[in-house]
Amino acid sequence: MKKLILTLVFAAAFTTLSAQTGTENTMDYNDYNKWSVELAGGVNKPQRPMTPGYYTSTPSPYVVDLGVRYMFNNKFGLKTDFGYNSFQGQKNSIDFDTKYYRIDLQGVANLGRIMSFETWTHSIGLLGHAGFGLSLLERKDPTYVKDRMGNFMAGVTGQIKLSNRIALTGDFTTILNAAQDAAFDGASTRPHQGFQGILFNGTVGLTVYLGKSAKHADWAFVNEDRLNSIESRLSAIETNMIDTDNDGVADYLDQEPNSAAGAMVSTKGKSIDHNNNNVPDDIEAYLLKNYTSKTDKSPMLDNNEFIKSLINGGYVAAYFDFNKSTPTDVSTDGIDFILTYLRKNPNASVDITGHADEIGRAEYNDKLSNARANKIKSILVKAGVDASRLNVIAAGEDNSVDKDSKLARKLVRKVTFTIK
């Protein structure tokens, strides 16, 4: 019944939290930058038309490209860009020097998001772009040539995210010129219809993201962010609902996380002990019923010996978080139990045994278990117990539980006690 009530309370709280933060989170998912500036440079190769005897290197320098891009969302956008190409003859070619200018408007598709690159990387992207524009081919010597044409271009741009503001890019683009009359070398002219001119560009550059938000649309993994947020909330609820000792009180509320199995506990998870003899009432009642002399009705077991058996049986312990040597807050009662016993029994001594889970190297876990035991010893010494009564033992790794179980490993990160 307790678990059912706690579950309903958490469910109600989660629903309320979702309602209160729903608008804010929706805004966050769309709160990314959309503008960027792109600068790149590289090489080119004009294919046709070329005048016989005129050639360029493969590839030949050089290309400069400057663009401005706007993304409507994290998958699609538009960009306008200005391009400049220089064409010059190679060693075996007749000498020439021409310039090529263009301006284009292109649609952009974030192929990395469309193909869900975020499932395997958050720093590599891929853009596809295509569009139309105007071009100008110009030659000044020995005769002046100017050829205006339209163009269609398409390409792909690989991205490597360097930071939230800058990405390194590598691009390959094909340009088709429409109605190109002059050859790329400018040495001959011939009317052409349709997309007869072919030019390849390869560039490397930088994209600079503009805006006040942390991310740009190129790297906004909207669906993943939503799922991660939901998973984090559910994980928090599941963690809070864990009840290690199965006493009906979730660990985050349980002030006694190692209650004996079946013990009656308070709403804070502490064993009920009305007579304050450090023996839970239900266990004490069971012992009195089953271990009492039929003649004098006195306990056959000495109460002090029973408490000693509880301690030596591992029912009293101090617990630790992963890779920590300082006991958790909920371990206070266990340490206080041992302290009380030692004060009431000044001739008793105790072995303080440290344990660790199996995660990590065995040598390291030996040191960690020793550090945990020494930490408890130092606490008891500061509380007035003579150090000569305290013997530290490093038990190292405890492999008695499933190594792959996070909850099980939590049970063996502890210090136990053996009364001598």
Verbal overview:
By secondary structure, the protein is an alpha+beta fold. Helices cover 27% and strands 33% of the residues. The chain has helices at 2-29, 111-114, 222-241, 281-290, 303-312, 332-344, 362-382, 406-412, and strands at 35-48, 60-71, 76-88, 97-110, 124-139, 145-161, 166-178, 195-210, 317-319, 350-356, 390-397, 414-419. An 8-stranded antiparallel barrel has the order 1-2-3-4-5-6-7-8. The protein is rod-shaped. Residues 1-29 and 291-302 have low confidence and may be disordered.
Summarize the structure.
With 420 residues, the chain is of the alpha+beta class. The protein has eight helices and twelve strands.
What distinguishing features does this structure have?
420 residues; four-stranded mixed β-sheet; 8 helices
Topology:
Blueprint: H1 2-29, E1 35-48, E2 60-71, E3 76-88, E4 97-110, H2 111-114, E5 124-139, E6 145-161, E7 166-178, E8 195-210, H3 222-241, H4 281-290, H5 303-312, E9 317-319, H6 332-344, E10 350-356, H7 362-382, E11 390-397, H8 406-412, E12 414-419
Parallel strand pairs: 10-11
Antiparallel strand pairs: 1-2, 1-8, 2-3, 3-4, 4-5, 5-6, 6-7, 7-8, 9-12, 10-12
Profile the largest sheet: 8 strands, antiparallel, barrel
Indicate the structural class. alpha+beta
- Got a strand count? 12
Pattern of helices and strands:
HEEEEHEEEEHHHEHEHEHE
* Beta strand %: 25-35%
Terminal CA distance reads 42 Å
Number of helices: 8
Shape: rod-shaped
Low-confidence stretches: 1-29, 291-302
How large, in whole angstroms, is the Cα Rg?
38 Å
